[in-house]
Design a protein that fits this description.
The complex is a heterodimer of chains A (about 500) and B (about 200).
Chain A lengths: L1 H15 L1 H19 L5 H9 L7 H26 L8 H12 L3 H34 L4 H19 L4 H16 L1 E2 L6 E2 L5 H4 L4 H17 L19 H6 L1 H16 L5 H15 L2 H4 L7 H25 L5 H12 L8 H4 L3 H30 L4 H20 L3 H18 L5 H23 L5 H7 L1 H27 L1
Antiparallel strand pairs in A: 1-2
Helix pairs in contact in A: 1-18, 2-4, 2-18, 3-4, 3-10, 3-16, 3-19, 4-5, 4-6, 4-15, 4-16, 4-18, 5-6, 5-15, 6-12, 6-15, 6-18, 7-8, 7-21, 7-23, 8-21, 10-19, 10-20, 12-13, 12-15, 13-15, 15-16, 19-20
Chain B lengths: L2 H5 L13 H23 L13 H23 L6 H17 L1 H22 L3 E6 L3 E6 H17 L4 H22 L9
Helix pairs in contact in B: 2-3, 5-6, 6-7
The chains are: A mainly alpha (about 500), B mainly alpha (about 200).
Chain lengths: ~500, ~200
Amino acid sequence: MEALISVQEQLLLIGQNPWLWVACLSGVTLGILWGAMPGLSTTMAMTLLIGLTVGMSQSVAIMFMLGVYTGSVFGGAISAVLINIPGTPDAVPTMIEGYALARRGEGGLALGTAISASFIGNWVGIVLLILFIPAVLFLALQFRSWEMFLLSLWGIAICGSMSSLDVPIKGWISGWIGLMISFIGLDAIHGVSRFTFGSYNLDDGIGFIPVLIGLFGLAEILRVLPQKNPPKIPSEVGRVLPSLDALIKYVKPSFRSGIIGTVIGAIPGAGANVASFFSYDIGRRRAAEEEREKWGKGSYEGIVCAEVANNANVGGSMLPTMALGIPGNAPAAAILAALQLKNVVVGPLIQIENPGLIYFIYIGLIIANFFMYGMAIALIKPCVKLFSLPKALLMPLILPVCVLGAFAVNLNFFDVYVMLISGLIGYVLHRFGFPLAPLVLAVILGPLADENFRRALLVFEDVGVFSVLWDRKLGTVLLLVVLYTFYDGIFRRGSRKESS
Amino acid sequence: MAIEEVVQPVAEEEVEERSSPNKDLASAFVIGVLSILVIVFSIRLDMPGSFYTAPGLLPFFTGCTLLLMAIMLGKQAVRAGAAVNLSELLDDLTIVAKQLWSAEQDRRRFLLMVIITFYVLLIAFINFNFRISTPLDFDFEISSYEVISVFVVTWILRLFWKASVRRCFIVTLTTVVILTSIFRYGFGILMPETF
């Protein structure tokens, strides 16, 4: 009953404020355009566009960012199908199937299928988010300092493992470097300056938004701009919308992929690309023999599996973000950043400190999904035109956006230096095969881990180890999960790699 | 088409560039040194309260575990065939560096890094702001950020896009004016400069 009243209140709030609709539509449009650009990822869209929310009110900013998130996840499919270059990494399976269809003159229909699948995927994610968030919130309230520390550690560890599948240790090293960056500044308990070397600018610590922009924006410019051979662009799109019969045919794979996408999204560190590849792989194994033969040569079912999963991931990634304050993936971390910018502290106490916010986000996601469907269809043709822009033209124009985005958060030029250094370091790390996502996640989670670790130790000062393990069962489970993550990364993957 | 081939130009956080054992060994060495520095600095931090709330406690553990990871990475690299002899390793890394420098793409990348650093420093050290009155009771502002951005981005476009200077200039000017107008007039944000 209380939930229904909250939903009604939020609906009334959204209905009465046209700026919320405008912000959501703008976010979706920008997100689709951004995601559709080859080389511009969802994370980059989210991080760079955070700067635009600085002057917005809290609710408008949230609607805008939800729109960008929803739009940019789908946007990756456009360039994947039309020019065989995925705009975002999770669109690679869509590209494999979609481009094969496009070469047969069915590019429009492939895109239409991707749009419909994204729409369905978003719905699955939203419904599962609504159904499961009360349970996750209940669980979240059992989290105290020790559990929060372990959860942060697990988030960084799992992100390291997932983003560096062959050599998990590189993912963890990247995460640990992020942790060390997060320690810079005044410590939260005693106010002691750590690793500042007398610099007043460093006393405030290193902001994660400039780091995010540097690693995903500037490093990307450095990586892509000097490349040669820009992609060629087809000018004709063809038919766009699939028939209803075709959509009904894919109900079962859609439902399965939606669950896969949401569950993977809820695991901290596991992004939309893990979801789309995993769902695509399971879809291929489960497909009828006749359909399976089409996989890799142009299968609509393959597109459905990948797109439903990566869009359901949006709702899934909001689960740990809202309930635990642990972002499900890098774009969710950007949502978290946008919320923090508006003084919204997400986590176990979200319902107490920000009553109604979760319902607002549900409704925001639903509205963004409808806008995404409409705008995706409307934007396909202009997008094709936009792709005529070569990267050599596009990338330099992103540079001033990076500078503005880094500066706008605190109006402090020091953040621009941080962005520059992060970009250069990010590029070097990339060249040496280190993933960047764990580093960013660790910069975000580091202060949480540090403060809770020391608080927990203080609480446990006069308590025996066995008492801690027995009394704090949730903590013990988490500790085992963390240890298993490291064990799996070091031993199992090592032995699998050797055997392969 | 192989996935490797198409993944290469994608903006991502997960797709890695292939690394070599020698690169991994060099990384392990640098990370090892970094972790030792963190351990030393965290031990030297003040400890105002109990040992359990010491500001250097988690940095110390982080440094120790990072050192362990660096050793493991180094061990993996040696197992995978990295040069164990220091002079051999240095020779290999010198060859890699020479190859990097001889590749046109990497020379262009280095130039781009220099230009971007130069761009940021210019914005930091040159500050001015003009206001142009318009008949619409509205002052149009031009700051050093716009001017520097237009010139530097035009330069980058000229180098990489290879269009005429005039065309590069017009494209940059239009983009920068639209972008700064959205930020300044749309969202009321000041333009970057050092105060």
